[in-house]
Automatic annotation (TrEMBL):
<dbReference type="InterPro" id="IPR023346">
    <property type="entry name" value="Lysozyme-like_dom_sf"/>
</dbReference>
<dbReference type="InterPro" id="IPR008258">
    <property type="entry name" value="Transglycosylase_SLT_dom_1"/>
</dbReference>
<comment type="similarity">
    <text>Belongs to the virb1 family.</text>
</comment>
<protein>
    <recommendedName>
        <fullName>Transglycosylase SLT domain-containing protein</fullName>
    </recommendedName>
</protein>
<dbReference type="Pfam" id="PF01464">
    <property type="entry name" value="SLT"/>
</dbReference>
<feature type="domain" description="Transglycosylase SLT">
    <location>
        <begin position="101"/>
        <end position="168"/>
    </location>
</feature>
Length: 257
């Protein structure tokens, strides 16, 4: 008991506890404090999640370009919960932002399978559509994409950035991924084919970020434990009365007749 009391008084006697001043801070001391804390800030994760194009050389750059777009001109997409999202990604509605970003990157990767078989230099429609997502130059210009020419749209990252710019408008307008051939389906033909649409849905639903099975490998901050609790947990003998040297079991008395 005395050890616990001494420990408490020792803690209270310290001028600083866990980085917080116990006593008042003078004006001169406050002037010396930095305007911005030098403590390192947590970085925004740029973890590249599984995509359907992962086997294609150079596809990591495509995933990173899509993430960059989702954090700039298409940043509204992860905030939207489309009405038909259950058919595409059951875990999306209650998922944190990184999981939602992974969904949109995954959707691009499975859509580009049916549009271009992951060939950034693909040209379709007799010279009408270009790149991974087979974008029409006039559509890119109308949606104010940076890539508007055939050669620019055949650059993988630029093509995906343009595709997400288009989706950020149509999904926000229609509040669906593909229901009623609106949302993303308003501009991309594979959503109009039941076979291709179901293939894309199956692949999306198998992903951890859509099944709700993914756990981030990023370390979790340890909980702060009260010093007295720690002492009681790791040194319980310090808080218990001393053990007797001999057994305290009463000895049987001899009964004299």
């Amino acid at each position: 008991m005395w050890g616990r009391i001494v420990f408490v008084f020792f803690i209270l006697s310290l001028p600083v506890c866990h980085g917080l001043w116990i006593g008042p801070v003078s004006a001169a001391t406050r002037e010396l404090a930095p305007a911005v804390s030098p403590r390192p800030q947590a970085r925004i994760t740029t973890e590249v999640r599984p995509a359907r194009w992962d086997h294609v050389p150079g596809s990591t750059a495509w995933s990173r370009a899509a993430l960059k777009a989702l954090r700039s001109h298409a940043s509204n997409l992860p905030d939207i919960v489309p009405r038909d999202i259950e058919t595409w990604c059951p875990a999306y509605k209650h998922a944190p932002r990184p999981e939602r970003e992974a969904f949109w990157v995954g959707l691009l990767s499975t859509l580009s399978k049916h549009e271009s078989t992951w060939r950034p230099n693909a040209v379709g429609g007799g010279g009408l559509w270009y790149g991974l997502l087979q974008i029409l130059p006039s559509t890119a210009e109308y949606r104010k994409c940076r890539a508007t020419t055939p050669s620019q749209l055949m650059n993988g990252p630029a093509n995906l950035a343009c595709g997400l710019r288009i989706m950020s408008v149509t999904v926000a307008r229609d509040q669906v991924v593909s229901a009623g051939f609106r949302g993303v389906a308003a501009d991309w033909g594979p959503f109009h084919s039941q076979r291709k649409r179901e293939d894309m849905m199956r692949w999306m639903r198998r992903q951890d970020y859509c099944a709700g099975l993914y756990t981030s490998p990023r370390p979790v901050a340890r909980p702060v434990i009260d010093p007295l609790v720690w002492q009681a947990r790791h040194r319980p003998e310090a808080l218990l009365p001393p053990r007797p040297l001999y057994a305290t079991r009463p000895v049987a008395r001899r009964i004299t007749p």
